Each structure stands twice: as C-alpha cells, then as structure tokens.
Amino acid sequence: MPAKPKGGKRQKRANQKDADFARELIMKEEGEEYAIVLKELGNRILRAYCMGDGKLRRCHIPKKIRERVKCGDVILVTRREYASTDDEADIFHKYHKDEVKQLQEFGHIPEDLDAILEAEATKIGVDVKKEIAAAAAEIAAEELEENYGKTEKVNDDDIDDL
C-alpha cells in the first residue's frame, strides 16, 4: 500500500500551482489604479501608493482575496465611488512576480519599483526593510507551524536525559 502524501491542504495547493499553469493578466480599466503596498495597518486594511495619480490611499482587502498581501506587493485597486474622500480604495487583484514583469514590459508600471517604494515609505515614516523582514518571518513561522505542528523548545537537559 503506498504511503500517504505528507502535508496539509495548503501544501498540496502549492504543489498544484507549480504545474504549468498561467493566470490571465488582468489590466486596469476605468476607475482602477495600479498600486504598491507600503504598510499593513491591520484588520485587512493597508496603506498603498497609487502609481497613476501619485496618491496614498487606505485600501481594504476583501475576503475573496485570500492571498496574503504584504509590503512591496503590486496590486490593482478600485477607488470607492461612495466614499466622501478620494483616499479610500478596495483591492481588486494581487499580481505575482511574473505578472509584474509583464506589466513592466508593457509599460503600464515603472521599472524602478524599489526606488518608488522606499521614497514613498520614507514620506510616511515607514522602514520598508523592517516591514518586509517582519512579514517574511511571520510567513515562515506560519509555514513551520503548519508543517510540523506546535513546536516546543527543547533544553539541553532534556537531550541528556534521552
């Protein structure tokens, strides 16, 4: 009898994504803007810099986007028509790295995203490197817990007793 495949639901989905599967590239339409995430504010809300008009907007992540959106990601936002101010938006789509490269080749977004990210983040007082490092550490901890369950710290005394 063959052994069961190891890992949970997320790991199996990740292995399926490695197959030759390409998503359709979603381009912006009227009322939408390309943006780059500057800071996560919590409660599915983040601060993003819209590249089309150069404004900072407070963006809301809807439940249908289950992908993790972190600092430095390129997203497509839709401005809220019913909002009293122009600084609120909803996230419509998150782009993967290969999709960002395609958008740069087509000329829809600028090539120097890192420079824009650092310049805009310093304006609002955010250390981008710390934000990205914190997000990466959080993701690594979640994956470790998911793959191996709750881990307990082992003391040297416990090892000697074995």
UniProtKB/TrEMBL annotation:
Highest taxon of source: Eukaryota
Stretches assigned to the S1-like domain: 21-96
Pfam families cross-referenced by the UniProt entry: eIF-1a (PF01176)
Example GO molecular function: translation initiation factor activity
Database matches in InterPro entries: NA-bd_OB-fold, RNA-binding_domain_S1_IF1, TIF_eIF-1A
Keywords: Initiation factor, Protein biosynthesis
HAMAP family registered for this protein in UniProt: aIF_1A
Full protein name: Eukaryotic translation initiation factor 1A
